[in-house]
Design a protein that fits this description.
Layout: E1 7-10, H1 14-25, E2 30-34, H2 40-45, E3 50-52, H3 58-63, E4 72-75, H4 80-93, E5 98-102, H5 107-115, E6 119-121, H6 128-135, H7 138-149, E7 154-160, H8 172-175, E8 183-189, E9 197-199, E10 213-219, H9 220-231
Helix pairs in contact: 4-5
């Protein structure tokens, strides 16, 4: 019996291809979906199956599993209007569905929020300046070197701060850089701001609370040690 598809990636774009490769590498059940038949050849050449459907039809979305066994969808079309429409349709079919929506313009962010997106991917928040600050840190470059040459088992992981963690109530400046652990703190997902990701390079001395999520990069064993000793 085949594993039910729990993740749908709408829009056959560069972003969906990269996400699909990550999911494929971790054996997650997913499906790539688009409405453009001309993309089939490209998908097959890259080794992916692409489902061509009319995503504007609610019955089609239900047949894909929205409202039943699908737990995550990504709306990754290059057209913001398509992402907003699909988000609205999917949310009406399943109030509990986790919808990750891509936006290409700042004007679409508010529309996606109203439509019911759980998380909004805004490339404009990741400006070239922030990326430059990030990659010029020596510890990041050492991780990139290790990843490229395959010397270490490098992972990116989200760590939720628990109520009894010693991090609860501290400021970002109190924990950055992370001492005694070979880890890089990339940023914080603030539970109160819900959809906002705060890059560590932005310089905000944010107060950490239970429920906030730290995004760290490091070796799997080091991440596990940090989770056990600090995150709890």
């Amino acid at each position: 019996m085949s594993t039910p598809t729990t993740i749908l990636l709408f829009g056959f774009t560069h972003s969906s291809i990269e996400i699909a490769r990550q999911l494929q590498g971790k054996n997650h059940a997913f499906m790539l979906v688009d409405n453009d038949f001309s993309l089939l050849e490209k998908a097959h050449a890259l080794g992916f199956e692409l489902m061509i459907v009319d995503y504007t039809d609610d019955e089609v979305l239900q047949k894909l599993g929205i409202g039943t066994h699908v737990s995550f969808i990504f709306t990754l079309f290059e057209d913001d209007a398509k992402n907003v429409f699909l988000t609205l349709s999917a949310r009406s079919l399943d109030p509990k569905l986790h919808i990750v929506a891509m936006t290409h313009t700042k004007d679409a962010i508010h529309k996606l929020e109203i439509a019911g997106a759980s998380t909004i991917l805004d490339p404009y928040q990741i400006s070239g300046k922030k990326i430059y600050k990030l990659i010029t840190q020596p510890e990041v470059m050492s991780i990139i070197d290790a990843t490229v040459f395959g010397y270490h088992n490098i992972n990116i992981e989200q760590l939720t701060i628990h109520e009894h963690s010693p991090l609860n109530g501290l400021m970002i400046n109190d924990i950055y850089p992370i001492e005694h652990y070979n880890l890089l703190l990339v940023g914080i997902h603030d539970k109160e701001l819900q959809k906002q990701f705060i890059f560590i390079t932005e310089g905000h001395n944010h107060k950490l609370d239970a429920g906030d999520i730290l995004v760290v990069i490091g070796e799997k064993e080091e991440i596990e040690r940090y989770k056990k000793e600090v995150i709890r």
